[in-house]
Structure formats: C-alpha cells, structure tokens
Amino acid sequence: MTAVVGAVSYIGLIVPNLVAIFKGDNLRRTLPDTALAGACFVLLCDLIGRSLIYPYELPIELIIGIVGTVIFIALIFYRLNGGLTFKLRRKKSSGTPASGSGQSGSEEVIHA
Predict the structure, then answer these.
(1) What are the UniProt keywords, alphabetically (predicted)?
(2) Each residue of 19-58: b (16+ CB within 10 Å) or e?
(3) Which helix (H) or strand (E) holds 7?
(4) Fewer Cβ atoms within 10 Å of its own Cβ: the N or the C terminal residue of the chain?
C-alpha cells in the first residue's frame, strides 16, 4: 500500500541534516536532538501558520513546505560548497613599518 507522506518528508530531510551540521554524524548523540529539533520545527511552523493571518489559520503543510524548501535549498548549497566557505583576509604586520604604511604587503587567508 502506498502512503502519501506530504510535509513530513521535508522534516525527515531537513532536521537530521541540520542537527548533523551542528552535532556531527554520531547517531547515538544526535537521535534525541533530532527528535527534539523536529518537534520544535513543526511547532514553529504551526505558530507561524496560526499567527500570520490572525483570524484565520494557514495549513501547517503549506508553512512546512515553504520554510522547508528554503532551508533545503540552503542545505544543498551548503553541502555543495563543502561547509562554511567564507574567507577572512587580514594583512600580516611585521614589527617594523614598511614604506611608511605600518603593514607589509603580504596577506594571510583564513578559511573559517
């Protein structure tokens, strides 16, 4: 028998990957955190659906679909880029001023 899952698939795709980014891939450590984060994600989407247009309610599947799509696309880009890829550039300073500027011309790239 085929079951239609709907918005639960987004929860199953997004929440474990987000928890794995912050806690690592050890299943014993992340399983309780994944269950708690999934419940919090559904609760947050339900609160958004109830308070966005106050006298009425939006279906939770709609909110989970919209928020889940944005987070899922962000996770795809995150995984394709290999994690955090922003670069901080700072100039190395040698103890003596070079040509009156106080800093040397070489740069050090820090991958964070």
Answers:
(1) Cell membrane, Membrane, Transmembrane, Transmembrane helix, Transport
(2) beeeeeeeeeebeebbeebbeebbeebbebbeeeeeeeeb
(3) none
(4) N
Q: Are 81 and 68 in contact (CB under 8 A)?
A: no
Whether 98 has a pLDDT exceeding 90, the answer reads no
Query: Rounded to an integer, what distance in angstroms lies between the CA atom of residue 111 and that of residue 14?
Result: 26
Report CA 6 to chain centroid distance, whole Å. 22
Cα separation, 109 vs 112, in Å, equals 10
Q: What is the pTM of this model?
A: 0.66
- Of 38, 37, 63, which Cα lies nearest the Cα of 49? 63
Distance CA 87, CA 10 (A): 31
